[in-house]
Amino acid sequence: MIKEATKIIETIQISKVYGTEAYPIRALNGISLTIQKGEFIAIMGPSGSGKSTLLNILACLDRPTDGRYLLAGEDVSHYDRNQLANIRSRQLGFIFQSYNLLPRLTALENVMLPMIYYRDNPLTLAEREEKAAHALEGVGLENRMTHYPNQLSGGQQQRVAVARALINDPILILADEPTGNLDTKSSREILELLGQLHERGRTIVLVTHEADIAHYTQRILLIRDGLLASDRRNGKRTNGGSEKPRKTGKARTA
Amino acid sequence: MNFREMVRISWKSLLSNKMRSLLTMLGVIIGVAAVIVMISISAGTEATISESISGLGTNLVFIMGNISRAGPGAGFQGMQGGLVYDDMTAIGDRINGVAGVTVEQQTSVTVKAGNTTLESITILGATPDYPTVRDVSVSKGRFYNEQELDRASKVVVLGSGVAEELFGEDDPIGQSIYASNVKLTVIGVLAEKGLVSGTDFDQQIYTPITVVFKKFTPSMFARMTGDRVRQIIVSVDPDADMDKVIEQITLLLANRHEVSLDALDFTMLTQSDIIETQESTTSSFRVLLAWVAGVSLIVGGIGIMNIMLVSVTERTREIGLRQAVGATPGDIQTQFLTEAMMLSLMGGLIGVIVGVLGGILFGALSDMRTVIEAYSIILSFTSAALIGIAFGYLPARRAAQLDPIESLRHE
Questions:
Q1: Residue A84: which of B403, B166, B333 has the closest Cα?
Q2: Is the Cβ of B331 closer than 8 Å to some Cβ of chain A?
Q3: Residues 6+ apart with CB under 8 A from B365
Q4: Most buried residue, A179, B129, B216, B276, by CB count within 10 Å?
Q5: CB contact A56 to B (< 8 Å)
Q6: Do B328 and A61 touch (CB under 8 A)?
Q7: Mean pLDDT for the stretch of residues A57-70
């Protein structure tokens, strides 16, 4: 039963069909996969493969048409919008390609945002501020707390987003093309940050179409035509925040 | 998420777009201010009217001849209608509960004194009871007495305005004036009373009615019908039963005029009849104002709805993100509803301030009187709040129903 408890994600033949009954569009054709606690996984696939649909379902933003999705042993396949919102608030952290920081809030306030929607949060405002400040320190932005997103570089904004994803201490972090809008140097910094989080025991699912980026992870799931085409262990494992074997052609400007 | 956080979020989002928030509130501000100003005007008008009605005198019954029957072609029969001087004497002598009775018959004359000439001055013939019945007082000299009435003495009492225009600072008592070439001796001046329901008491001159009959409105039928008067005014004893007095007068006059009770040739109006008429006029005025103000409040509400709908579209990504980090549809709906409420409440508050200041200013700058009513403030502010909820609901619902995935993709 110990094995059961460490299963973060288990999907059983999940499928997703869009469109009308007469002209169904099958985005997912029955995917079964299991992700253990502490894994760092990349989901890859060409555009239109269904990887975004899979991510949306894993992120509890969408529900499968068929099949079951167990998140930490809880079947969330048929949850309504309010229940899903609660799951997202308590269990999940998101990192988006375009950061999605609210432009009118400071870095600190952006990090505090998920705490507002965490039901029955016992923390006072001051305690939340302290926690958010601590999270920003964790991503190296202790000097940028009162900056607004437009005063931060892309890499810095994505770090704020990482801090925001972590603030409610989720069991799973979902990153959708987190380096898609970043230059090489910032990309690597973000990936190293994710690597460090993984080292500390976080479970991270990263969606990307770049093989270079997938190589930072332990395990690569390849989605094609709505099916799981391959599931392989990545030999080139990240190894903490310091020494990393790299197969990337990107130059490191140290 | 608790109420305070909701208010903080909404406040921040309204502050971030100050100009738009202000313009959105403008509709509500104008609506609320309009309600307050308009109610203050109609309340002021009512106060003026009720004061002027009580200024007519006390417990009065006005009796007017139905002169409409004396139109052209009506012949001698037509001319018989109306009131005569002796009707007044009869009322005074035979009816119980009458405190005073007077008549009014008037005509327009040109008045001269020394080098001063005044055109179109009303000369009003009455009886010595006149000051009591009409609630005017004499400031200088005295009013004419019964003896002067009987003898048709050519004496005159001046309205305060006329006295000042003719004599200025000089004492008019004992001086002579000419009213359409009839020489009259001034024996008194009335105290200032001003304009009461269309009559400027200060711009009239007052002589015994007998003088008016003889010198100013001689009637060829007077010998047959008696001297005609425009109206008889009866002041009823406050302790007497008004209805009973009216009934007695009606019977008496019907008898004297030889008309049946369902074809009377005179009309009786009490002060309360006049008040009722005035009240129905002002209440329809007030209903009209309420409609105008109500419509402007609704227009303000539509303005809020409009801007909130735009805001929802503009902030679709923000809504998507909030949902992604755990906001339920209810949270989103409450946030947008709170924003709409805050807009309408702030608009209402500013509107109350503008309305109260506007009402006071309007009263000070125009010749209309305004009275700020507490209920108008409560009414308009409450309406503004309700309008915020009503018109904020649709945009808030739309925001809550947005799909998080599509919202996050929204550009």
A1: B403
A2: yes
A3: none
A4: A179
A5: yes
A6: no
A7: 92
